[in-house]
Amino acid sequence: MPRCAAFLGSINVGGNRLAMADLRAALVGAGFAGVETVAASGNVLLDLDDADRAGAAGEIARVVKAEFGIDSLVVVRNRASVWSAIEDNPFHGDGQDRFVHSIFLDRLPPAERFEALLAEHRSRGGERLALGPGVLYLDYVHGVGVSSLTGAFLQRRLGVRGTARNMTSLKRILAKMDF
């Protein structure tokens, strides 16, 4: 069965503490197979066929809310999508891996909202942005902590939710998906 990655937002940030052993146990208890966590930031690998992948994000979000009281965006991607989030990111290889992010979106934002964000940000910072299939590519250039492009800011401007991973994390996750 194919390996997939579930990217959970709001895990072990902003006071939402969750031990990965507890998350694994809850997901196994909910019937998920091949559950493995990568790092302590809401990256879960699981075995899902295409039919199961469609409903997995909603089911994982339901389990996390019911078991831990955390309202988390969950985005599930197959190996090809994770590979694409690295290789198709126009800033990968140009910027530093820890500053170059792929933000997995729950849906694509309207083009006019993305264009408005680009226009608004042009004079504000050195960050670089691009839109891909189901993902927002972002190079924080000088660091995430000094940027005004926070998750909440991007959500307000684009009207979509997302959860970000840097290139270092994505490469680690992809390597584990290959086993």
From TrEMBL:
InterPro entries tied to this protein: DUF1697
Domain of life: Bacteria
Gene3D superfamilies xref list: SP0830-like domains
PANTHER family assigned: BLL4334 PROTEIN, DUF1697 DOMAIN-CONTAINING PROTEIN
Full protein name: DUF1697 domain-containing protein
Organism: Tsuneonella litorea
